[in-house]
Every structure is written in C-alpha cells, then in structure tokens.
C-alpha cells in the first residue's frame, strides 16, 4: 500500500544573514522574465530585508499506487525541495504531506553516508537507518555489493570512491530494501551508460510491485523510460500535471521552460 | 532504534582513534596523565594525603568530563549529524542518543581506571557507595535533555558553541574538583554552592568517599534537572520542525 497526498505545501528557506537586495525593485519584472521568478520568491520583512526564499508555494497533488511521477522544471523551480519534503526531511511550513508506505530517498549523493567509513559499514548504517534488521541487511549485503560493482573497494572508506562509485553504492543501497516509495533526484542521469541501463532495469521492477517512484530529471529520455506522469514545476508552483509525454512535449516546446511562462 | 544509535556511536568512536597507534586507550592515558599530574601538585595545597586526594580528583574529574563533555557534544549533536538529518527522516533524538552513548563509553573507560586507583589507596565499598547509582541515572537523564536543548540552540546560533566552550573552560576551576569545598571559609563555600556543578559532582563523588551527599545537593540537582527537561521539551515542541532548515 503506497500513497502520497500533498495539500497546499509551502516551504520557505530562512536566511539568517539578512541581505538587502542590491537590485532596485524596479528591475524585478526583468528577473521574472528570465524564468527565475526572482524577486517575488524572496520573502521580505517590514523593512525590506530579505529574510527567506520561498522554494515551494501552495503545491497540491496526489500520487496513487503504481504511479511513477517525473518532475520537470528549470533550475531553481523547486524540484529538489519538493523531493526533500516528500522524503520527510523538510517539515512543511504550511499545508500538509501524507505519505503511506515505506519511503527511501536519494536526493543528494553526498549525504546519508559516513565518508570516513567503509562501503560495507555504510550499508549497515543506512540499512539500520531505514528501519531494517541486522539479518535483513546481511541477507542483502552481497547483492548490494554486486550491483554497486565496487569489487574490493567495498572495504575501503567511501572517501576513496569516485563520484560514480558513490552514486552506484547509494543507488544500490536505496533500492535493495524494496521500499514502497522511491524518491530520486536528477543526479541519476550522471551515471555512465552501463549504470543507467542497470538502474532503468531496477526501476522497472518497481512497476510490478505497485510502488511509487518520484524522479526529478532534466533528461527527457530518462523520464520517458521510467515515468508515467509528469509534474512541471515553475517558480515553486505546479505549472502542469498530466501524462509524461504531454508534459515533456509542452516543456520542450517552451525551450526547457526558460522562456516566459504566463502564470 | 537502539541498534541504530549504538552502531552509529561505535563507528564514531572507532573512527576517531583509527589513525592513532594506541587508539581508544588515549582516553584512558590522557585521563591518567591529568589526574596524576594534578594530584601530585595540588595535594600539598589541599592539605589532604596524596592517597586520598588522588581518588578525590579522579572521581571528580571523571564526573566533570562527562558533564562538560555533554555540553560540548550537545552543541554539535545536530550540526555534526547534518549529513543524516538532511538525507533521511529519522527522529532527531537518535542523534542525541548516539552522542550520549559515545560520552558514556568514555566515562566508563575512565571509571575503569579510577577503581584500581581507589583500591590502591585502600578503598573498601560500603552500602553508601550504592548512592552513586541514582546519581549516575540523574547524569544520563540530564545529558539527554541538555544535549537536545544545546543542539537546537547551536544549530540556530553558531555563537552558542563558542560561548559554551568558553564557559566550560572556566567551570573546571570554579567547581570543587582540584580543591576541596569543606576547607573553605563561609563566603567562599557559599560561592561554590551557587555553582550547580558543585552539587552534580558531589552526588556522584561523595558516596565513593564513604560520605552521604548533602541534602542541599540532591535538592539543587533535582530542581535543575526539572528545569532543563522543561526547557528542552518546550524548545523541541516549538523548534524541532525548524531544525533541518537551520542546518
């Protein structure tokens, strides 16, 4: 049983070194035209100081069992923040997120690992952190090591790994314990062809188990292969929600959403 | 969950001393060096016999290291767990237990040195020694709340860490560890009593020295414990949701 229900989700990152914008507010419309939405997403206090950045602004949607959701949107549109909120890392400032099912998220490959510890140790730590027992972890250890393809590196500190190796180990651990909901950020497309193929296969097995996949990416082919539904974020708001092909077509027609979107 | 923070803590302890040849025994060695060195010079000032004074210092110092260590670790408990807090949703208390477990291991290792010293000085356990057990339970109870509270404060205000470090450095001199409160005249003894740590150290150390801790000490410790827990629980209820944004 897996289900995600998001209602009126708003997330604002606080800014502690309060800055006064060096730009005149008159230039704000120019910023917006650039596609960054700029100024209207900065939250100001009474005296005009910037006290935060609104990353998500009143987002609502629902994901049902077996759906595979692809997030698209320009840089800074709120994709990663939405993934982190779905993963339960950022509690909503306003609105609510209800998630049913065991979830695993891979948003930043540099997080969720002790880089001084060995690959093997990290398998244990992450397994325990996702609520698995020692026995379950031992059962999967060989499989994780094989999928990550690290060979003897599995006994070396993660510090010594290349970015690709880190990514493979992370992905192998995250998917090995068969979560109901898998939340992945765009770094997946950074893998080489061999890894992408293996990752695609692994994500395909998800469909059979009626899990939910949420994947953010700038790669149209990755999204087309793995997703059924698309959610287009723009300036922290949902701009379009529909079948992945339609969303991607509309997104690409606008030159990856860089040009002006009439809200 | 217990398994999780235990594994985290063990891993951290091993990691910390992995590159040094003597490894974890550095905890014991540096403790011994301090206790022996200080006892040698300060026993003359305290007017106590060297044999008695070394036990007094060793017990007081072990207790002090545990308490002040929890202040210092508390300031880093969430900032140093940033990698995990920003990666997966775990109860934040897991990080507190991990940190506490680590300082408890350090404390146990130090106590393992204190016992031989006590036996060497001719110590025999009595019924009153058992009073150290509730004292230890109170230590752990305080440490949980103190670490959670300081962790939240230091995550929001980086300066808190520096402030706590400066205060802790001073505390070792104003707490009766290197000197004996009983030998002081009225005003100084009163001033020492104003420091809550005097009482925290006393409820643990006195039972081992065959003395009953003063009732005042237990009352002060009890009051401070309640205050720390109320402050920690309130802060957690209000600010816990903001923690990932602060890191």
From TrEMBL, chain A:
CDD domains: ABC_KpsT_Wzt. SMART domains: AAA (SM00382). Residues 37-260 form the ABC transporter domain. PROSITE patterns: ABC_TRANSPORTER_1, ABC_TRANSPORTER_2. GO terms for molecular function: ABC-type transporter activity; ATP binding; ATP hydrolysis activity. GO terms for cellular component: membrane. It comes from the Bacteria. InterPro entries: AAA+_ATPase, ABC_transporter-like_ATP-bd, ABC_transporter-like_CS, ABC_transpr_TagH-like, Bact_Polysacc_Export_ATP-bd, P-loop_NTPase. Transmembrane segments: none annotated. Keywords: ATP-binding, Nucleotide-binding, Transport. It holds the Pfam family ABC_tran. Belongs to the ABC transporter superfamily. This is Lipopolysaccharide transport system ATP-binding protein. It comes from Maricaulis maris. The lineage of its organism: Bacteria, Pseudomonadati, Pseudomonadota, Alphaproteobacteria, Maricaulales.
UniProtKB/TrEMBL annotation, chain B:
It holds the Pfam family ABC2_membrane. Keywords: Cell membrane, Membrane, Polysaccharide transport, Sugar transport, Transmembrane, Transmembrane helix, Transport. It comes from Maricaulis maris. Residues 5-208 form the ABC-2 type transporter transmembrane domain. It is a multi-pass membrane protein. GO terms for cellular component: plasma membrane. Belongs to the ABC-2 integral membrane protein family. GO terms for biological process: lipopolysaccharide transport; polysaccharide transport. GO terms for molecular function: ABC-type transporter activity. This is ABC-2 type transport system permease protein/lipopolysaccharide transport system permease protein. The keyword Membrane applies. The chain crosses the membrane at residues 21-42, 54-79, 100-121, 127-150, 162-180, 218-239. It is found in: Cell membrane.
């Amino acid at each position: 049983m897996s289900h995600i229900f998001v209602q009126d989700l708003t997330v604002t990152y606080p800014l502690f070194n309060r800055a006064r914008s060096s730009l005149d507010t008159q230039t704000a419309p120019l910023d917006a035209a650039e596609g960054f939405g700029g100024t209207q997403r900065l939250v100001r206090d009474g005296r005009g100081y910037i006290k935060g950045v609104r990353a998500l602004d009143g987002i609502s949607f629902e994901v049902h069992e077996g759906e595979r959701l692809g997030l698209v949107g320009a840089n800074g549109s709120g994709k990663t923040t939405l993934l982190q909120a779905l993963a339960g890392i950022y509690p909503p400032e306003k609105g609510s997120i209800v998630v049913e099912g065991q979830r695993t998220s891979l948003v930043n490959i540099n997080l969720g690992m002790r880089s001084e510890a060995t690959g093997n140790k990290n398998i244990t730590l992450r397994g325990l952190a996702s609520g698995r027992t020692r026995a379950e972890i031992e059962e999967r250890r060989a499989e994780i090591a094989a999928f990550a393809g690290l060979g003897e590196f599995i006994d070396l500190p993660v510090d010594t790994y290349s970015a690709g190796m880190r990514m493979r180990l992370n992905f192998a651990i995250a998917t090995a314990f068969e979560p109901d909901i898998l939340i992945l950020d765009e770094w997946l497309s950074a893998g080489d062809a061999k890894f992408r193929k293996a990752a695609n296969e692994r994500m395909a097995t998800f469909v059979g188990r009626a899990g939910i996949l949420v994947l953010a990416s700038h790669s149209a082919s990755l999204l087309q292969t793995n997703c059924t539904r698309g959610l287009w974020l723009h300036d922290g708001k949902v701009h379009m929600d529909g079948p992945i092909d339609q969303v991607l077509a509309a997104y690409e027609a606008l030159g990856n959403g860089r040009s002006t979107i009439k809200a | 969950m217990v398994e999780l923070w235990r594994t985290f803590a063990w891993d951290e302890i091993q990691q910390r001393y992995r590159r040094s040849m003597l490894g974890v025994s550095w905890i014991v060695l540096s403790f011994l060096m301090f206790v022996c060195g200080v006892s040698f010079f300060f026993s003359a000032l305290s007017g106590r016999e060297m044999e008695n004074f070394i036990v007094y210092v060793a017990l007081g110092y072990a207790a002090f290291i545990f308490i002040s260590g929890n202040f210092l670790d508390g300031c880093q408990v969430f900032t140093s767990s940033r990698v995990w807090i920003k990666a997966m949703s775990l109860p934040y208390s897991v990080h507190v237990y991990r940190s506490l477990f680590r300082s408890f291991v350090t404390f146990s290792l130090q106590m393992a040195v204190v016992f031989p010293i006590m036996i060497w000085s001719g110590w025999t356990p009595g019924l009153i020694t058992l009073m150290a057990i509730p004292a230890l339970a109170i230590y752990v109870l305080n440490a949980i709340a103190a670490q959670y509270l300081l962790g939240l404060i230091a995550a929001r205000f980086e300066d808190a860490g520096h402030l706590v470090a400066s205060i802790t450095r001073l505390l070792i001199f104003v707490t009766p560890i290197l000197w004996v409160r009983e030998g002081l005249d009225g005003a100084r003894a009163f001033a020492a009593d104003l420091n809550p740590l005097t009482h925290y150290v006393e409820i643990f150390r006195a039972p081992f020295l065959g003395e009953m801790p003063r009732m005042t000490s237990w009352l002060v410790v009890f009051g401070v414990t309640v205050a720390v827990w109320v402050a920690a629980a309130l802060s957690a209820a209000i600010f816990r949701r903001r923690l990932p944004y602060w890191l």
